[in-house]
């Protein structure tokens, strides 16, 4: 006679043992994967690639390397460099190559143009983050996320890495921009300054073109097409902003413009005279630009198309990207950037 009860007990015991062995192996494999991921994360954190634009306004490669050695290399962080010495050396290609080689911390060293090019490549790779050492004349994105503007403090921030702050982007065609896209007087002004003037004069390079444009008192006819607004109007400037800073003291493109608010900010400047611009400047300094009759602002949730009635240049983050028409699409949480902790920002303010 076969003892069915005993047989069932044995079978059940074998099943439980087999299940336990499978679970043990799964836990073991998961542990190995997590250890490998942890080791990979540690390796990635301990390797930093710097994309340096030596042609930017405040570039100082010698001081940069000295500070990086003091604050990163001495902590065991492996640092590699690409240095752009002349036109034609691609910051985008250098960034893509570094990402393919496994670097997951890429640092843009230069002005807004360099930051945009590097950030646009970094955003496409999972786990990759951006560091910024702001050495340009305006440093708009750096100001927009409260980064330190002196080189030593900015390098120290890279070493400490207190917070990763994700910011939005503005997509035009296949490329993404992170500060401003404009048509009108501002884009015309920035198209008149040269690299040499920016290096020699910094922000002052914009003043003479600005004065010349204001004297001409020009405006243009624009067509705006977005889910929130469909309109034809005359304006001296149409700008879509991701950051509020202009780069001049406390002057902003409107209150509450933040690079991580999940929205685009449409800014319209309708004033043309010297008096109108002086009034705008004064109200902006006092934080009351929205009270000006010469300006209008609108929050946009997804996208906008802007068309001009003539071949006006379209400028994005300091670069000419087209003329007459531009379609801009919001990319939420496009890239993570090493930024100060929130309490540090409060203390600084």
SS element count, helices? 11
Q: pLDDT under 50 segments (min length 5)?
A: 33-42
**Main sheet: strands, sense, barrel:** 6 strands, antiparallel
The overall pLDDT, averaged over residues, is 82
Measured as a percent range, the helix fraction is 25-40%
Tell me the strand order in the biggest sheet: 6-5-16-13-8-9
User: CATH first level of the largest domain: which class?
Assistant: Mainly Beta
Order of helices and strands: HEHEHEHEHHEEEHHHEEEEHEEEEEH
CATH architecture of the largest domain: Sandwich
Q: How many separate structural domains?
A: 2
Strand content: 25-35%
- The CATH topology annotation of the largest domain reads as Tumour Suppressor Smad4
- Structural class designation: alpha+beta
Broad shape? globular
What key phrases describe this protein's structure?
6-stranded antiparallel beta sheet, single chain, 349 residues, Rossmann fold, 2 domains, 30% strand, 11 helices, alpha+beta, Tumour Suppressor Smad4
Describe the structure.
There is one protein chain. The protein is α+β, with helices and mostly antiparallel strands and 349 residues long. It has two domains: 44-161, 3-Layer(aba) Sandwich (Rossmann fold); 177-333, Tumour Suppressor Smad4. It is 38% helix and 30% strand. It is built from eleven helices and 16 strands. It has a six-stranded antiparallel beta sheet, covered by helices on one side. A hairpin with a 2-residue loop joins strand 8 and strand 9 (229-235). Helix 2 runs parallel beside helix 6 and helix 3 (91-100) packs parallel to helix 4.
């Amino acid at each position: 006679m076969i003892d069915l009860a005993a047989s069932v007990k044995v079978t059940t015991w074998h099943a439980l043992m087999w299940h336990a062995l499978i679970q043990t192996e799964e836990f073991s494999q998961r542990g190995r994967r997590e250890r490998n991921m942890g080791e990979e994360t540690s390796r990635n954190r301990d390797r930093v690639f710097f994309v340096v634009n030596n042609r930017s306004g405040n570039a100082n490669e010698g001081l940069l390397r000295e500070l990086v050695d003091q604050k990163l290399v001495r902590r065991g962080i492996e640092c590699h460099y690409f240095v752009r010495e002349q036109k034609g050396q691609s910051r985008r290609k250098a960034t893509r190559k570094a990402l393919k080689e496994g670097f997951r911390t890429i640092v843009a060293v230069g002005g807004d143009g360099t930051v945009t090019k590097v950030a646009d490549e970094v955003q496409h790779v999972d786990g990759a983050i951006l560091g910024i050492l702001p050495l340009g004349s305006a440093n708009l994105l750096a100001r927009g996320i409260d980064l330190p503007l002196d080189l030593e403090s900015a390098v120290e921030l890279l070493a400490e890495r207190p917070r990763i702050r994700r910011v939005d982007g503005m997509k035009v065609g296949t490329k993404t921009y992170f500060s401003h896209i404009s048509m009108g007087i501002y884009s015309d002004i920035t198209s008149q300054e040269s690299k040499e003037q920016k290096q020699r004069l910094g922000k002052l390079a914009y003043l003479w073109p600005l004065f010349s444009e204001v004297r001409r008192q020009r405006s243009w006819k624009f067509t705006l097409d977005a889910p929130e607004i469909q309109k034809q109007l005359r304006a001296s400037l149409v700008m879509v902003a991701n950051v509020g800073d202009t780069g001049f003291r406390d002057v902003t493109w409107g209150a509450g413009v933040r690079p991580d608010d999940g929205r685009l900010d449409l800014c319209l400047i309708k004033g043309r005279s010297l008096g109108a611009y002086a009034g705008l400047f004064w109200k902006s300094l006092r934080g009351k630009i929205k009270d000006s009759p010469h300006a209008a602002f609108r929050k946009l949730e997804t996208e906008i198309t802007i068309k001009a009635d003539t071949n006006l240049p379209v400028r994005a983050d300091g670069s000419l990207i087209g003329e007459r028409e531009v379609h801009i699409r919001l990319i939420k949480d496009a890239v993570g950037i090493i930024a100060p902790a929130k309490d540090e920002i409060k203390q600084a303010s």
